[in-house]
């Protein structure tokens, strides 16, 4: 343990680290600060509402009570947490940053790291679940609810640990020469570790989904049509496309920011990381907004469940009777059709037997 005498920045305020990193920090409000707050708050509120809708839809619609949807619901929870993190960041940025203590500044960063880590690990769990399901020729995996719950708890434990690492000591407070430019209280070594770890995870997930798509394409040309009916095969491919779009949006929105952190960690003086920092943060924030849009556009059942929830809210708000919105299931429709077909076939054979005996 370093004592206070050997810790260079222990008693310094946040402004000291910003000046050390040549990152501007003004006590006066600028037009850019007003734009950030004015646009950021409504966007964060919409992020909270949209992802809350996804979580409620998965809870109220029993057709979504499968491992893949539980994990997607946890993804929405991570996006919801990201919206809270961005909202906290907005109200602790610009001139407000000057009044933050070191601990408050580190907690502000920890919230962003937790939301990103939760999303990354959750996407990895979704990729694993899809891999297990597709390669066993099933629409949904046979994971028990207890196992899914353990996965979700594990995801958040990892996210919390990763978020608290800088707060617990991996920062530059006691070694100011290692401070980064983008995040002045963070150590460059931590930014490199965090960025490389996430970029490697992205690559693994892309490789998994590429393998799954190649497998599905080959099977759809040969054995898969005989294993699943056409409707169920379409549902399988549709669900795969949805989760792949979620992964694609995540990689597109977060990769530029991680690259900036990596360049900053490598102390690239010619890269002008501060010039692109704000844009990368806005792009990362958009990811939490994009996912609910993907759910509603790609999944008709999810879209109809949204309508049902909104109808319920309108009915409660207006105190008038409104017919419940119909809900149709794309996910389980093929299973229902197979059941009905089997039931009709059984009834037909039973009637034929009765006529023969008569």
Automatic annotation (TrEMBL):
Q: Name one GO molecular function term.
A: lysophosphatidic acid receptor activity
Membrane-related topology note: Multi-pass membrane protein
Under InterPro entries, the record lists: GPCR_Rhodpsn (IPR000276), GPCR_Rhodpsn_7TM (IPR017452), LPA_rcpt (IPR004065), LPA_rcpt_EDG2 (IPR002277)
Q: Name one GO cellular component term.
A: plasma membrane
Domain of life the protein comes from: Eukaryota
Per UniProt, which keywords does this protein have?
Cell membrane, Disulfide bond, Endosome, G-protein coupled receptor, Glycoprotein, Membrane, Receptor, Transducer, Transmembrane, Transmembrane helix
What the entry lists under Gene3D superfamilies is as follows:
Rhodopsin 7-helix transmembrane proteins
A Pfam family cross-referenced in the UniProt record is: 7tm_1
Please give the start and end residues of each transmembrane region: 34-60, 67-87, 107-128, 148-170, 190-216, 236-263
Q: Give the location in the cell.
A: Cell membrane; Cell surface; Endosome
Q: Does this entry carry the keyword Aminoacyl-tRNA synthetase? A: no
Q: Can you give the residue ranges of the G-protein coupled receptors family 1 profile domain?
A: 50-295
Assigned protein family:
Belongs to the G-protein coupled receptor 1 family.
Q: Which PANTHER family match?
A: G-PROTEIN COUPLED RECEPTOR
Q: Mind telling me what this protein is named?
A: G-protein coupled receptors family 1 profile domain-containing protein
